[in-house]
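Box S1 | Example of a co-folding query
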Amino acid sequence: MSFGRMPIANAFLKPCQFGDEYFYELATASCGSCGTFQIIDQPDPGKMFHEAYAFFTRTSKRMVAHFADYAGWVQREFLDAADPFVVEIGCNDGAMLENFAKRGIRHLGIEPSANVAAEAARHGIRTTVSFFNSQTARQIRAHDEPADAIVAANVICHIPDLNEVARGVSELLADRGVFVFEEPYLGAMIEKGSYDQIYDEHVFIFSAGSVQNAFRRHGLDLIDVLPQATHGGSMRYVLAKQGARDARPAVAEAVAREVQQGLGRPETYETFRSRCESSRDALVDLIRKLRAEGRRVAGYGATSKSTTVLNYCGLGPQDIEFISDTTPVKQNKVTPGTHIPVLPYEAFVERYPDYAVLFAWNHEAEILAKEEKFAAAGGRWIKFVPEVIVT
Ligand code: JHZ
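Box S1 (continued) | Returned holo structure for JHZ
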């Protein structure tokens, strides 16, 4: 399926940069052999992860709390060594590693985007600015011991060379160590029709079956899976060296559920495609109708996901007046491809729009709790996952 011409999801820009805007075709496919759902044209990672990366994990309080839980769980379940060593691939601003650091656990964050890595360092996290691959893994091994846990969140699906990730993990992991990562889940995306999970950074949308297939050939077994509510439906995967740990029944159960859901069948993706098209048409019709009636429509959260929605739907500043976002590096720029102004949160509060499109729908509970005044003032939310509705 093709979502058409697409810019880099987090490449918020200034008008003087319009001439240099990079576009590629956002098209997807599912591998007939390993079952991995993936984007076909994969932009070079250097275009996305650099010294001006726009996404900071700490922008969501609930995600910060989630990472404290995640770290606590890894420690309780797996860190029984005397002086354990934890490595995080893609540590961003250190929201997860901080929890290990605070308990005096030896750690290292590997992060290719220098600006978010600097934020992690500011929080006392030991970081290396680099992409993760087998060479990085060897360099870490040369200075540190093997890792008792390699952790990641919303990162492994960002790395086009999955075989290199697997080689690096095998190289770095202690014999009884675990590799734990969580990512948006294919089963949830298909169930909810949340096509906005598909953008340049998400090279893959994993399932239990595809993770099992991809890592098995590198001697890594999928030993557990744990569904997560974060980011609109994610899955936590736990892997270990072949034979080192027993697989929990949840793995076989998840794979069986995926077969039942039809994740391996082409018809599932045909249905998904028509659902995306209907969702796009419904959202465009709704917003254009409201605009024709003279209503003001703004967006809430200039998410990476919104780049797919806005470009796929062809919505621009004539449809959406501005998008408010709390991330300083996104503010006073415009959205990639569609050039809608991104304004600080204060712009939203100072002059509430009639309707706000909830682009950060994955943070709905956190945002709605914060925005009771907007609703009380007559403001309405436009949501588009799983269906286009006004509340
Ligand atoms: P949010 C990013 O996706 C990118 P995005 C990445 N590729 C990924 O996989 C996921 O994260 C995990 C703002 N906001 O979390 C902050 C408010 O303004 O949905 C963010 O810019 N007010 C690594 O970008 C955006 O919304 C708020 O109250 O789709 C949320 O982005 C809150 C809670 C957020 O991730």
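The radius of gyration is 21 Å. Residues 55, 59-60, 154, 201, 231, 301-305, 325-327, 330, 345, 360, 362-363, 366-367, 370 surround JHZ (CB under 6 Å).
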